[in-house]
Amino acid sequence: MTLAPSHAHDSPYRPGERPSATSEALLLEQIHQALSEKKSLSIQGGNTKSFLGRPVDASTICTKAHSGIVSYDPTELVVTVRAGTPLAELESILDEKGQMLAFEPPHFGEAATVGGMVAAGLSGPRRPWSGSVRDFVLGTKVITGQGKLLRFGGEVMKNVAGYDVSRLMVGSYGCLGLITEVSMKVLPKPKHQQHLSLQISQKDALACLEKWGQASLPLTAACFFNDTLYLRLEGGDSSVKTFSNQLNGSAIDPNFWLNLKEHQLPFFKDSGLLWRCSVPSQSQALTLPGEQILDWGGAQRWLKTSQSPEAIRTAVAQLGGHATAFTPGITTTPFHPLPTLLMRYHQRLKAQLDPTQLFNLGRMYSDY
After folding, report:
1. Region (Disordered): which ranges (predicted)?
2. What's the pLDDT band for 294 if we cut at 50, 70, 90?
């Protein structure tokens, strides 16, 4: 894959090689115009995750033209990329160097962008073992609701100025500002993999996962449904083979994990109202009618049920978790309602970074 001139991804970024910022300037111009006209904006990249959250009644500002790799140093495991860059393009470039986004972000469509990945903050099956999107973000460039282009954080972990602000952008769904650029850590792809399934009850599966979690094992994904525990083993050849021999499981197609994170398994294609329930990993079964998939070793539970949002959230809250609606239109509060104090913090952040309520107003909550 060919990059923009002077930005080959096999060498570190050098001063003077940064690509033209014309597309960034155009975004700033649109934002300043919206501010002068007192209009609200709805941020859009590839539009593959627009089904999440509440609808936003505002003019669209699209980031797709602001695309490209700014810098990539494989030896330092750091990449800086523009928000409109297709996620598939970034992953392809990393793959050429034997590296990856360790948090396995779902695309939910071919048009997914890096900005949307950060704004949604969603992670795939490897998340409990490698970390979330937020754990890998080093820095961001953001246009605030005051029309200011600010840089937070940096390209290395030791450069921590503004680091927490960059992390706040992860999972903010565009409510705090428009991300134009992000710097991230990347990791080498594991050298050895095995993909197995075991016929086992849910109770026994959770007990095994709890036991394995206390040991240093090459486990990087665990999913349970239909009385089957699916496992991915990754790491050194010896450790993977040793643990695999202990399990004596059946080999499965490695694409199972891709289909899981992209919601391409039959479970997701069948009709049913879909909820994402986040709970402590060793929580007991959700006492709700319907079908479930236990991902993240039990910490993320995909639930299809016709139960009311109130009943679902009550049951999940009793386990110490929260629930998000993944089927549009089934509730006016798709994200779990926040306690009063936490909502106050959200509102203060919005007031600091977007005092004019320019961006994605109401996407997460009615007044945020």
Report:
1. 1-21
2. very high
Backbone dihedral angles phi then psi of residue 219, each to the nearest 5 degrees: -100, 125
**Distance from CA of residue 97 to its chain's centroid?**
22
CA dist 65 and 63 (Å) reads 6
Check if the beta carbon of residue 202 is closer than 8 Å to that of residue 285: yes
H helix intervals, the chain: 22-36, 87-96, 114-120, 127-130, 133-136, 163-169, 202-213, 237-247, 255-261, 266-269, 309-318, 340-353
Are the CB atoms for 53 and 335 separated by under 8 Å? yes
**Cα angle, residue 302 at apex, residues 300 and 298 outer, rounded to 5°:** 30
Residue listed under structure tokens 């299809």 = 304
> Which string of b and e fits 75-110 if b means at least 16 CB within 10 Å?
eebbbbbbbbbbbebbbebbeebebbbbbbbbbbee
pLDDT in tens, 343-367: 999 999 999 999 999 999 999 998 7
Reduced to 3 states (helix: H, G, I; strand: E, B; else coil), residue 361 is coil
Q: Average the pLDDT over 299-318 and give the result.
A: 95
Q: What is the pLDDT of residues 187-231, one digit of tens each?
A: 999 999 999 999 999 999 999 998 998 888 999 999 999 999 999
> Which segment, 6-15, 65-74, 279-288, is predicted with the most confidence on average?
65-74
Residue 134 CA to residue 228 CA, distance in Å, equals 31
Query: Which residues neighbour 213 within 8 Å (Cβ) at sequence distance 6 or greater?
Result: 281, 297
Name residue, tokens 């599966």. Answer: 205
CB atoms within 10 A of CB 249: 20
User: What are the sequence ranges of the domains in the chain?
Assistant: 22-188, 192-325
Of 295, 304, 298, 303, the residue nearest 261 (C-alpha): 295
Q: What CATH number has the domain spanning 22-188?
A: 3.30.465.10
What is residue 171's predicted lDDT score, i.e. its pLDDT?
A: 96
Q: How open is the CA angle 111-183-299, to the nearest 5 degrees?
A: 70
Q: What is the reported pLDDT for 146? A: 94
Mean confidence (pLDDT) of the chain: 90
DSSP three-state, residue 301: strand
